Amino acid sequence: MKKYLVTGGAGFIGSNFIHYMLEKYSDILIIDLDKLTYAGNLENLKDIEGDKRHIFIKGDICDRKTVSDLLMRYDPDCIINFAAESHVDRSIADPQVFVETNVSGTVNLLGCSMNAWYDPATCTWLPGKKFIQVSTDEVYGALGSDGFFTESTPLSPHSPYSASKASADLLVMAFHDTYKMPVNITRCSNNYGPYQFPEKLIPLMINNTRQKKQLPVYGDGMQVRDWLYVKDHCKAIDMVAENGKTGEVYNIGGHNERTNIFIVKTIIEQLRRRLEDEGISEALITHVADRLGHDRRYAIDPEKIRKDLGWFPETPFEEGIVLTIDWYLDNEAWMDRVTSGNYMKYYEEMYGNRL
Ligand code: NAD
Ligand code: TYD
Hints:
42% of the residues lie in helices and 18% in strands. The chain is of the alpha/beta class. A 7-stranded parallel sheet has the order 3-2-1-4-7-8-12, with helices on both faces. Strands 9-11-13 form a 3-stranded mixed sheet. Helix 1 links the parallel strand 1 and strand 2 (28-34). Helix 1 (12-24) crosses helix 7 (230-243). The structure holds nicotinamide-adenine-dinucleotide (NAD) and thymidine-5'-diphosphate (TYD). Residues 7-8, 10-14, 33-37, 39-40, 60-62, 82-84, 86, 101, 105, 134, 136, 165, 188, 190-191, 197 line the site of nicotinamide-adenine-dinucleotide.
């Protein structure tokens, strides 16, 4: 039986990954370590409650004792680190926690793994072990109107979020270069799909549109992101865990470059038709003050993972956005619950002066 330690499994991508893996493999054990910050939600894992192949542990990746005890008790073959502070706007407002979780948390996981898996006397690692760091294309900085990020693009992060992720990547690679730790780093583009917290563009716009609230588009809305359907991303991570070559970085992109304004107009159009409400219109779009240091364009060349591991993005944006909207319309109670309480405070602080 293959055993995984997944961190951040109550968040957006982590919970999708756990669903994906439990559907795909019957003989599997997933230990899920999550601090349950504002972004972590056990409701994302409700349908697998009671499934013995998934063990949830509430805890912090920065806590040495918690992580060491888990490694000792369950002896996982593979650690996949999804846990992070993940929102650029929050990192601009308050960078400190990004360094704590994304940098110190990652180095703690690396150190604990090394204690459990490495024999300094012989400089050898237990066979069959691997550490996967889930990173982001944002570590490469921003592109102009053409070109793509490849794995050899120099790191040039701009936001406190991407700087913290780049720092973590450098530490992961340092453990590989120094101690030959078996690692992979994956760098993906913008994910979208079920269970994404509505602070990110797509779920925020779906939530506001269904309520006919203003749709805050930063600046001119012509920034470009490469959208990756979350299930395609989960498949890529599974393939890297299975066959990724030690020490390699893999870029994972959707070949779905779209401007932000296109995304917002697509959501409006879809919801107007689906909810049969003429009050849902482009008049809801409100251009607001731009994000500080806003990266203009991200785009990934996923050729390496295609060539080496046979992965490709299967879900075109037009299909993925319909699946995503379907999910949010079918799960309005989920959206209502995650946007009650603290979310309103966040929204007021982030958008109050802009709108
Ligand atoms: P998310 O914010 O939805 O979830 C993060 C999860 O980590 C939450 O469940 C949270 O409770 C948990 N967490 C936070 N701090 C923790 C800590 N100290 N200890 C344990 N758990 C902690 O994030 P996501 O969108 O699912 O992103 C997952 C990973 O993928 C992150 O590393 C992120 O940088 C990366 N990534 C995300 C995207 C995207 O589009 N969402 C794109 C590129 C890379
Ligand atoms: P986001 O989903 O926060 O992801 P990232 O910053 O990691 O790419 O934002 C995606 C794009 O949408 C980004 O260019 C910022 C923009 N954006 C808005 O225009 N309005 C919003 O309310 C949000 C949340 C994002």
